[in-house]
């Protein structure tokens, strides 16, 4: 996307909401990842306070942890449940699904674990 926008020009002042081809929940991502690696992965939600504390304890700055929690709250309110078509319009092909992305990067994810 970035390369295409820079090469094509004509995008100054435009804000694009970039998404994959479908909206998925964290539980759905865990189920997809479970199928890919052949092990059961479960998503467990935590409270916003626990999330903030965990992020700060792991070394994240307080301001960033607070912003991440604001984003988590936005998703919890359903405001992140959107799908846009900008990627396909701009690069001329559909964006990768979460399954395609995880399959393409499986070895990197598993080696980092």
Topology:
Blueprint: H1 2-8, H2 26-37, H3 48-57, H4 62-76, H5 86-91, H6 98-104, H7 106-112
Keywords:
7 helices; 113 residues; mainly alpha
| Alpha plus pi helix count | 7
Question: Helix and strand string, N-terminal first?
Answer: HHHHHHH
In whole angstroms, the N-to-C terminal distance is 28 Å
Beta-strand percentage range = under 5%
Verbal overview:
There is one protein chain. Helix 2 crosses helix 6 (98-104) and helix 3 runs antiparallel to helix 4. This protein is 57% helix and 0% strand. It is an all-alpha fold and 113 residues long. It is globular, with a radius of gyration of 17 Å. It starts with a helix and ends with a helix.
Sum this structure up briefly.
It is built from seven helices and no strands.
């Amino acid at each position: 996307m970035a390369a295409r926008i820079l090469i094509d020009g004509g995008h100054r002042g435009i804000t694009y909401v970039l998404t994959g081809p479908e909206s998925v929940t964290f539980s759905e991502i865990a189920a997809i990842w479970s199928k890919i690696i052949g092990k059961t992965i479960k998503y467990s939600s935590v409270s916003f306070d626990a999330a903030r504390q965990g992020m700060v304890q792991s070394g994240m700055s307080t301001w960033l942890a607070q912003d991440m929690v604001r984003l988590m709250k936005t998703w919890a309110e359903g405001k992140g449940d959107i799908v846009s078509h900008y990627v396909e319009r701009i690069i001329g092909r559909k964006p990768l699904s979460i399954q395609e992305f995880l399959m393409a990067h499986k070895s990197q994810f598993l080696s980092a674990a």
